[in-house]
Amino acid sequence: MNVLITGGAGYLGTELIKQLSQNPEVNQIKVYDNLSRDNFAFFTGHKYANHEQITFIQGELLDSRKLNKALEDVDVVYHLAAKVATPYSTTDPHFFEQVNHWGTAELVYAVEESNVQHFIYCSSIGVYGSSTTPLDESVAPNPRTFYAISKLRGEEHVARLQSKMKTHIIRSGNIYGFSRSMRFDSVINKFVFESNFNNMITIHGDGKQKRAFVHVDYISDVFNRLLTADVPAGTYNLIERNLAVLDIVDVMKEINPTLEFIFINQHLKLRNIVASTDLKLAAHMELGEKQTFKEQMEDFHKKWAF
């Protein structure tokens, strides 16, 4: 089958392509990305397995003509392209709307006119809003940021496809872990970088705020196997664990006992976003073995050049 990945040169896209390029079911991979984050690391380093099957198209989601051409002969679309939240999810609503809402709408329009048979959309746990108790897919979304609102509106467009093709909406936790296209605005990635090179991390708020997290290797593996897994169309959460910021710090102190940390605006109590780890998706496909968080952090610390 032939695959198109929007935002394929980004953080998750880079790791997903590593998986797809080794998947015997995949014949061609088209990477569609506007490179707005200057994510040129995707093009560097070791060659992907079967790299001859990968082609790159620089384009915008709102460029309907280029999208239509890119979708020729495509069987499966992974929609990863997005204006991401951290750390400005409550500013610049127009940008979030243009990319995450109307960009997704334009892609869905183009897919409706194509021969695509399977559409996979990477949404966010953030659509649920704030919560101190773990949420599952039965809970009605209540987004609190411009980012989350735009992702939910994108979901509404994608849901139109469910009557026409196999469609999966995956609400992902906060992604972390090493990649050559890694984002450093993600809290765990930022902490590990600071721990390794500064021996001091900066904590915003009181550190008690909790988030739902998923490792980049874990989500890319699940996305790869969604190609052939017998998973009914629908909306699914995908997280590995819920962690408070201070939980992350505790593990990092075990790995680096000399690590220091400083609080910024410690009086602030920031919101929680936690989700159930009893995943509905697990009833339909094998999700693979999980490493412990400490094991993941130990591996992460070993990835740096010095």
Automatic annotation (TrEMBL):
Pfam families: Epimerase (PF01370). Residues 3-237 form the NAD-dependent epimerase/dehydratase domain. SUPFAM superfamilies: NAD(P)-binding Rossmann-fold domains. Belongs to the NAD(P)-dependent epimerase/dehydratase family. PANTHER family: DTDP-D-GLUCOSE 4,6-DEHYDRATASE-RELATED (PTHR43000). This is UDP-glucose 4-epimerase. It comes from Marinoscillum furvescens DSM 4134. The lineage of its organism: Bacteria, Pseudomonadati, Bacteroidota, Cytophagia, Cytophagales.
